[in-house]
Design brief:
Blueprint (H helix, E strand, L loop, with lengths): L4 H19 L2 H5 L9 H28 L2 H23 L15 H13 L4 H24 L4 H27 L11 H9 L9
Length: about 210
Amino acid sequence: MNTHPIRTQLLPVVALFALTLASCSKDEAVAPTPLVPLTTAEQDMLRFMLEEEKLARDTYTALEAQWGTAVFTNIKASEQQHMDQVVRLLDRYGVAYTLLPAGVYADSSLQQLYDQFMVDGQVSELQALHIGATIEDLDIVDLQQRMDATANVDIDAVFAKLQCGSGNHLRSFVGVITTMGGTYTPQFLDTATYAAILAASNGSCGGA
């Protein structure tokens, strides 16, 4: 008859572990891990990324109204989901924030971008699509810089989803630009990273 001395030795340990779990109260078993307070820099990065996702949504909404291009309709809805994910993170950590009206931003650099996009986006449909690609190009880089600057797992997880979504969006914009006979040159991504993103397949991105 075969014997399993290691398994025999483990049985009392397993039984004891089961008894220990049974003796725990329900509240103790599901108690959440305490949140690590965010630094000022981490709070600021969440507020900034909320506004940058809002910049994308607001811009695509305006360009959709101007040109009626389907890609703007589809991606503006996704940008609202991106905003919602950042808002949930802000609320989770109790970070105060303000959402200003469409086209208005607390960050002056984002305000300048939006104002310029509204001018350039009237030139042609192709130029409007270039603006979409530029926004996603910038978003991917900004998200990466902020992930590199934090060790907070919640921020990293959400920003990685948003970055995945922005990769999908960039491929969509570049695809339409190419179909229309145009080309897009990355403004913020390095050439190798840009090429890798274009070569990748679209992902589900955890709902982002």
